[in-house]
Amino acid sequence: MHIHRGAAAVAATTLAGLALAACGAGNTGDTDAGILVGTTDKVVSIDPAGSYDNGSTQVQTQAYQYLMNFPAGSTDLTPDAAESCDFETPTEYVCTVKDGLTFANGNELTASDVAFSFQRIVDINDPNGPASLLGAMKKVEARDDSTVVFTLAAPNDVTFPQVLATSAGPIVDEETYPADKVLDDDAAAVKAQGFSGPYTIGSYKKNELAEFTRNKDYDGAFGTPKNDAVTLTYYADANNLKLDVQNGKIDVAWRSLTPTDIASLEKADGVTVHKGDGGELRYIVFNLKTMPGDDDAQKTAIRQAVASSIDRDELSEQVYKGTYTPAYSAVPEGQTAATEPFKELYGEKPDVDKAKAFLDEAGVATPVELNLQYNPDHYGSNSDQEYAMVKRQLEATKLFTVDLQSTEWTTYSEERVKDAYPMYQLGWFPDFPDPDNYLTPFFAPNNFLQSHYEDTTTTKLLDTERTESDATARAKTLGEVQERVAQQVPILPLLTGSQVAVSGDDVEGVDDTLDASFKFRFASLSKG
């Protein structure tokens, strides 16, 4: 995110309408603002050390530079701030940083900044941060001004290079970002200006408005942005987002329109519905510490009984009109080595007899009281219907009673890592296009779920698949991980979905950025 005069030029007119924008009224359609994008996603933190969520990543993608990145339309890693990256030894991954890079504040970007950026994520280890992505990194250091060396815990880690393009990868300025704490959004966006990506940030008001201006000094994987400025407005109501894109008040609606709205917009004049590669996963997390059950055996039985009681087809068709499809594994269908062990173990349809058998064998008294938490504003407005249906399905078995509660995202993201929720909703947008990204962040030690799940066998299998260069052998191990996770049920996969964006007919470049790397790049957008 970088500052330039173009962003400042629109600040006066846009900030005057911030109160309306925050309520979902949208922008005025002033073309001086460049491309106008709307979203219902919320930002936790634009400091990479303090966030690991889609809304925060959306902002970081535009403003920070990464060592390696995925160009639009590609899943091939390409140098961004790096000149090149490669294994120097089986456990040393070495990157050479391009000469002459600077941050928006004028400070030089060197290998020291790169090493600092990765190390502070590990040291801060914020509960909402991406430290779990760096579990394979033993240490990182700058050999000189242009060379950074990552020492890995295991040799020949086939996934680590892709981690450089994830939420753990943004490069920050060590002169303006503290080593031991997360920088608040106002300091990061306005004061520090430690950005060297395609854009800088001008005006910024958290979860209301962010203004991006093209960074003329950017030299990286995304190429020269096809627009000079982008204004991102945050909506509280998806219906207002739909109305504003349909009426031309914004150019692009990106996350999250309802399935009904998408179906309606497909028939509307003046707009185009764009669909890209899928991979989003919607699931329930079990907190193994606070969920019901007197011991591990009872807790496992309760999770297995819940898994036997869910009708994913009903969720897919009645709530999401087929825009999401059933998921029967932690690795969604269509990903490499994906299997469907939840279907095999618990059935495609609810099986009350099987659910009751799990509970009876473990001596669990029924009905089991479940406290289930969901979020109404981060994963789309249909979450209300989705979790009302989950509650109904579980209670229809007569084996459960469900206390269903909801919390807004900014509070939800803080409370769920403090053991506040015994069972809760999450969604996953993969960091990079590899099945490991649905497994290691969830089930390795110190995983981002912080659900108290840790299993020695699973950890060994994950270590094996990450370092296996033979595709057939790796697929077999990935299948074993999925099977074990399905047996233990630390999460319950529900649905998987594709990427959807809606734009005015005069907007170009949307399809280019809807690829399996799951990066929505403002740099690809232009108006014809």
From TrEMBL:
SUPFAM superfamilies: Periplasmic binding protein-like II (SSF53850). One of its GO terms (cellular component) is cell envelope. InterPro entries: Peptide/Ni-bd (IPR030678), SBP_5 (IPR039424), SBP_5_dom (IPR000914). Its main location: other. It is found in: Cell envelope. PROSITE patterns: PROKAR_LIPOPROTEIN. Residues 77-447 form the Solute-binding protein family domain. Pfam families: SBP_bac_5 (PF00496). One of its GO terms (molecular function) is peptide transmembrane transporter activity. Residues 1-21 form the signal peptide. Belongs to the bacterial solute-binding protein 5 family. This is Peptide ABC transporter substrate-binding protein. It comes from Aeromicrobium erythreum.
